[in-house]
């Protein structure tokens, strides 16, 4: 007697397919998108060289060292890669500012590029550390003198329409820090732009709601 074997019975059980494991990419999203403190050596005015070395090592490890050496140049604003450059430049600036004490970082909030910020910190504090000040009071005095000089230089470069706020700031004692001065000038600029859309009648300003 012949026995018919069905196709299903004749098929051997299929063995599970082996899959080639895919290489995993390091997850840098957290470190690159959050304002982490990139070094335990926060810049306090007297440890510039140790701080700068730590920052350089961190940026080099993240592939962002070019933003403080100008190797990563700003592309044309209309180019396709400008948004990426702008975002990464801002990220590096955030890293730098967050690695300073609050008293120092307040003076470095108005720079447009990480390179400009880095150069100004270097100019200020490498000279300060080289001064070999005799006491902490000498160090504070030197820092304050440089800060006031920066305020004068910033105000001197303003247009004539800011003469009022210019005089108001210089009339204060003590002179505010450069970060505060910059913020006040920006507020004055916004106020002037709003008033420019108004009509003055008998000393009062009337605004067109459609323009606000």
UniProtKB/TrEMBL annotation:
It holds the Pfam family Retrotran_gag_3. It comes from the Eukaryota. Residues 11-26 have a biased composition (Low complexity). InterPro entries: Copia-like_N. Residues 32-69 form the Retrotransposon Copia-like N-terminal domain. Residues 1-43 are annotated as: Disordered. This is Retrotransposon Copia-like N-terminal domain-containing protein. It comes from Trifolium medium.
């Amino acid at each position: 007697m012949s026995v018919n074997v069905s196709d299903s019975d004749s098929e051997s059980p299929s063995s599970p397919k082996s899959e080639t494991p895919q290489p995993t990419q390091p997850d840098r999203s957290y470190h690159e998108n959050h304002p982490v403190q990139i070094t335990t050596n926060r810049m306090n005015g007297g440890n510039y060289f140790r701080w700068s070395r730590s920052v350089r090592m961190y940026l080099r490890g993240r592939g962002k060292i070019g933003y403080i050496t100008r190797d990563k140049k700003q592309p044309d604003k209309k180019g396709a890669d400008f948004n990426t450059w702008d975002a990464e430049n801002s990220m590096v600036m955030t890293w730098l500012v967050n690695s300073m004490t609050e008293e120092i970082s307040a003076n470095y909030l108005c720079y447009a590029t990480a390179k400009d910020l880095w150069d100004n910190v270097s100019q200020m504090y490498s000279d300060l550390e080289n001064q070999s000040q005799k006491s902490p009071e000498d160090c504070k005095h030197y820092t304050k003198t440089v800060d006031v000089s920066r305020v004068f230089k910033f105000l001197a470069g303003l247009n004539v329409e800011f003469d009022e706020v210019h005089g108001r700031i210089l009339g204060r004692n003590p002179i505010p820090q450069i970060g505060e001065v910059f913020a006040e000038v920006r507020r004055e600029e916004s106020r002037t732009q709003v008033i420019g859309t108004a009509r003055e009648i008998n000393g009062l300003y009337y605004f067109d709601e459609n323009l606000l």
